[in-house]
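Dear colleague,

Following up on Tuesday's group meeting, I ran the structure prediction for the two-component complex that the binding team flagged. I've pasted the input sequences exactly as they went in, so you can double-check that nothing got truncated or mislabelled along the way. The structure tokens for the whole assembly follow below. Feel free to forward this to whoever is handling the docking comparison.

Inputs:
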Amino acid sequence: MARIDLVDLAHSYGGNDAPQESFALKPVTMTWRQGGAYALLGPSGCGKTTLLNVISGIITPSRGKILFDGTDITPLSTQKRNIAQVFQFPVIYDTMTVGQNLAFPLKNRGVPKAEIDKRVAEIGRLLDLEPYLNRKATRLTADAKQKISLGRGLVRSDVAAVLFDEPLTVIDPELKWQLRSKLKALHRELDLTMIYVTHDQTEALTFADTVVVMHDGRVVQSGTPAELFDKPAHTFVGYFIGSPGMNILPAEVRGREARIGGHVIALNRAYDNLPAGAKIEIGVRPEFVEVVAPAPGLLTAKIERLDDLGRIRFARARLGDAKLAARAPAGFTSADGTAGLKFDPSHVHVYADSLLVEGAA
Amino acid sequence: MDKTVNQKAWFLVLPVFLVVAFSAVLPLMTVVNYSMQDTFGNNQFFWNGVGWFKELLDPSTDLGGRFLASLGRNLFFSLVILAIEVPLGIVVALSMPREGWTVAACLVILALPLLIPWNVVGTIWQIFGRPDIGLLGYALNAAGIDYNYVSNDIDAWVTVIVMDVWHWTSLVALLCYAGLKSIPEAYYQAAQIDGASRWAVFKAIQLPKMNRVLLIAVLLRFMDSFMIYTEPFVVTGGGPGNSTTFVSIELVKIALGQFDLGKAAALSLVYNLIILIVCWIFYTVMTNAGAERKPQEGAV
């Protein structure tokens, strides 16, 4: 168990001399605290698996250092690092029983037999694998196999962290839910640092207390699910998290006002020193824009359709070239296909070159 | 259920019938026919019933003694070359590079012995091993080792075995290499994470994942070595004495040397039957092993 620090860590599959833009993992400095449940969230190809493999030692980073509790372990091999990792597809040792599979990481490290038996029994119980412990692992279903893989990751009590690389990809949706809650429970019970890689925001938000969002090889934001929702640090976080994602609209921002096509939207904070020449956008979540009957002074949008999600309705609208989603209050209908937009000023954020700008109070 | 009646199809199948009849059925029936008779040349045949078959299985007769002795030699030969070629092939496959231009180079070098015709392999080793002009034979004798495959039984055996290992280990290695290449990278990564040693990785991942290709390799090498003829015939001619006379060499001696068509026919039928049975056993074992693995592949 340890705190993990990444210091100026970067990796390029093309070698250290490749231009930085081509790096699979761009320089990052961050800390994973002991006992935390982290999710590493991002679309395919954003570098999250690279980051994970760098931490576990499967990949040696091109630059930077990894510290476990302050000790530099960058040059150590995977075997020597105290780390467990679960992969996307179940890895099962065919010739062994379920119990032997679970015992394998301990046996390789010369743990005494009595201790192995105890741990295997405990993990078997936690993962509901007890009835299968003496069965050959090859005959089991995919989700039972993935449970074994999870079990092998969790069986060592001394690991610095357990890394999960999209471990539920092969599992049925119904079981996915169960296994995820199981993992969450295991996290509480075993007090392990867990890092969970996924491209599924629901998975990330339900599992983790800290979500780290990656985009194009960069860590763009790290925070609680609420922070990511309320205050996305990057437009990517805005539209990647939330369903539908955040509306990002090009605008002119001066002081406490944003202008879109001559219409003024009030802002809660003052933005006087925006970087010159930057691309300025405002971002607002659909939950904080309301479609109402068109009225003077309100931005008018064309309604394309209404999506009824059961508890809430979202209007899909068009504003000039930009598409936009907005909450449709109960009873809202649009006679002529247009509607006025009412923004909640406290939830309108300003972005310069995709990065959040903090306004002055 | 209105099937189109079109008898023309028979004309299309007919050539195959004819080819099979003339190439397989008729010769086989001729052999069966011969195996029941004795000939004294001049195309004179005498009915002998199952006499030859009885003699074949009775070691006290000349025919039975020669057959059973050569069968024993053949089985021993197959066992020895399997015991050498399979582990050696695995080791070669494991030590081959997994990527880069060296892969292609290794594959070409490994494939070379496989591309050489049998009798050329025999000739190469026949000359290679000669104590007077052969590189190997001369070097061994110069080093003080008394080596002569023409006069010494053990030397002859060693030569034939080393030749077969040289010729066919590549096949086992290539099959194993294919098996190894099909193991997903995640298995090796997981084993690393689990702290597995090199030996544990081999035992827990590589060997189980290779068991299918290994079965094929064993089958192929067994059948091939059990039917071996050309190479030992060229190198030792079955000698010294009868020490390297395998079943096929004995068969040719009886059939073409002594022109005992009846004995040779009976022997070849039994020989064929043994091969068929072994084939069937291997096939059954292999398909069962396949069925055992099916659910796993389906699930993943």
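Chain A touches chain B through 33 residues (CB under 8 Å).

Cheers,
M.
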